[in-house]
Amino acid sequence: MSAHIQQPVFVLGPTGSGKSAVAVALAELLGDAEIVSADAYQVYREMPVLTAAPTAGEQARVPHHLVGFMGAGENNDAALHARRAQEAIQGIHARGRRAIVTGGSGLYVKFISHGISPAPPGDPALRAELAALPAEEAVRRLQQADPEGAAATNLQNPRYVVRNLEIVLLGGKPLSYWQQNWQHGPAGPGFCIVRDTAELDSRILRRTGSMLAQGAIGEVRALDPLSLSATAAKTLGLSHIQQYLQETGGESADFIKTRTRQLRDDIALLTRQYAKRQRTWLRREQWLTPLPATAGSKAPQLAAQIAAMLGR
Fold first, then answer.
1. Model's pTM, two decimal places?
2. What is the rounded distance in angstroms from the CA atom of residue 112 to the CA atom of residue 101?
């Protein structure tokens, strides 16, 4: 087996950038590839539409790994996901094929591409103390201790805020130190789809509308909110849809139509904010080769550019 097949290829980008379609097109172009997801939420089988998981058609065209294999009551985390991804990659390589890793969950990608972070281990007592703080106070302390790290953190997620604040306090260094101090270089070549912000925002709005039309609301309605894991409960848009369901029961068709439009706009805004944080993280990852894309760029064209850079 040639050495280059032993290296996975990373196809990354912010949410809505089209990376999943490019990964599928690249796998078909290479002809000997399988896809490994680095997404924190596409693991949940009950929410394929809400998490924008690869469609059944895409999975029929190219084998996918770590998609839709967990129940919404199970927790996921970056270290566990990275270990599973490495097992999948090793299996793909053992079959003489190439792994394409795609996803937008930064820490999940980083653990797969560079190994598990050497950040200081958790301190249960300190974490309990920080978790007991009001959310606003925890955010304020993180912003004060590490402004740059706070800017790259999802401040709406108390679990991320507490863990990052814990790392800064225990390690005595900013998050960027731990994020850049991995012991290994990248496991393989990486490419990042880059789109103009206005165009990406437009794509996100269209995708959000399509997601709601294709069944995301029904997926959330079918979930038992009391049985959701801490990870699953943080799925982008889930809490907004839960609130929508509470407000629209028994209401008129006109009210539901207006409220659904508001739901689309709210989730699109939340997604744009998430994409902004992703772009901040991706810009710091200097091992990634930018892959500029425009509204006219098609997935096969972008895949062909990657294949050419890989010498295929």
1. 0.81
2. 9
In one-letter notation, the amino acid at residue 158 is P
Task: List 10's β-bridge partners, or say none.
Answer: 101, 190
Strand order in the sheet with 33-37: 64-65, 33-37, 98-103, 9-12, 190-194, 288-292
CA torsion sign for 163, 168, 173, 176 is positive
Q: How far apart (Å, rounded) are the C-alpha atoms in residues 63 and 169?
A: 42
Q: Does the structure show a pLDDT above 80 at 6? A: no
The pLDDT tens digits of the residues spanning 169-217 come to: 988 888 877 766 555 678 899 999 999 999 999 999 999 999 999 999 9
